[in-house]
Amino acid sequence: MKLDLNIKKPTTRNAKNTFAEIERGAIKLFYERGYHNTTVANITAEAGVAAGTFYLYFPSKIVLYQHILGVFSYNIRKYIAERVSEKNTRYEKEREGIRSFFEYMIENPEMYNIIWEALYIDYNLFRQYYQTFADRYVVGLEEAKKNDEIRDLDSEVIAYILMGITNFVGLKILFDLGNNNIDIEKIIDVIMEFLEKGLFKENAH
Amino acid sequence: MKLDLNIKKPTTRNAKNTFAEIERGAIKLFYERGYHNTTVANITAEAGVAAGTFYLYFPSKIVLYQHILGVFSYNIRKYIAERVSEKNTRYEKEREGIRSFFEYMIENPEMYNIIWEALYIDYNLFRQYYQTFADRYVVGLEEAKKNDEIRDLDSEVIAYILMGITNFVGLKILFDLGNNNIDIEKIIDVIMEFLEKGLFKENAH
């Protein structure tokens, strides 16, 4: 996501701490109350910093939100990419990508709320978020096609299909967290079987 | 979705018109500004009805929102079910279900916003919305399993996989609407090929 955000990056150690506290406070409040119900004053109070401090770094609440969305986008992709890079085949990469997405989501349950809220804050930001994610996916899928690992289907549609699968099965996992019956490896097994052979039996139509 | 909503249903023709205008106004404003930025006074003004009228039918804004979510839930399922019932095999039903979901979404682009906003209004409502949808899906999948049409995979996980595919490819279609290159039948072809044979070539791992 290429955003020209008018943010003043902190340089001193104290300033870095303040900046980090503002980020942390904003993530907490955007998650708990939503963007629209959170004021800049709420954020500085939650962060435990002086009210005026906010504007030393961010010109507005929306710029802070864009910054946080960018940080999530970067962190998720980095978290997944590091794990996936250790795998060789597209099959193994896909499995590891799905597993690491679920892991990241369970550790950062505020992720869904903050990302999807873009739909209500700035539609273009929401669109850009998923299109950026899809564009990166397409690169990997095209490579797998060249290696004859996956079938020759439109890579962009496949990217959205795969993002849909992980996001919605991820939702289901979040719904069921705390339930004793949940076995994430078994859920990943179902997804991989589905990716291997599809849903339908041969000659089902 | 079973909700015990404390709504007073209109009985006279005039009352029915007022009720419908409040629904229409609320859908428009929830879509344009979001739930939290819309007041009851905004809704009655948009609907062109007297301010006090609202409370003749709805005890609160949240109850109106729940009512609208229930109406969307019912209408989408009805729209899809009517078209799907004319098809015989699970393969044809699935194709028709996906096509009619996309059609409904294109005709009602406010649908996504209003449904996903439940995540920010009432998490349990959001969860219940998708779980209800999944539960209905499971019934059809179990039948298809009995008929030996689909492979023996966990039906609930498959329901979330299929909902994820239609919702995310649907997003992609909304992103691209107005773009000349968009061909929805071709997109559905890709999904169906994916559902038929999966993503990976044989022995890809």
State the gist of this model:
2 copies of one chain form a homodimer. By secondary structure, chain A is mainly α.
Overall description:
The structure is a homodimer. Chain A has about 200 residues and is mostly helical. Chain A has 2 domains: about 5-60, Homeodomain-like (Arc Repressor Mutant, subunit A); about 65-195, Tetracycline Repressor, domain 2 (Orthogonal Bundle), CATH 1.10.357. Helix content of chain A is about 70%, strand content about 0%. Chain A contains 10 helices and no strands. The first copy, chain A, has helices at about 15-35, 40-45, 55, 60-85, 90-105, 110-115, 120, 125-145, 155-175, 185-195. In chain A, helix 1 crosses helix 2 (about 40-45), helix 1 (about 15-35) packs across helix 6 (about 110-115) and helix 5 (about 90-105) packs across helix 9 (about 155-175). Chain A is elongated. The relative contact order of chain A is 0.10. The mean pLDDT of chain A is about 90. Chains A and B meet through helix 5, helix 6, helix 8, helix 9 and helix 10 of A and helix 5, helix 6, helix 8, helix 9 and helix 10 of B.
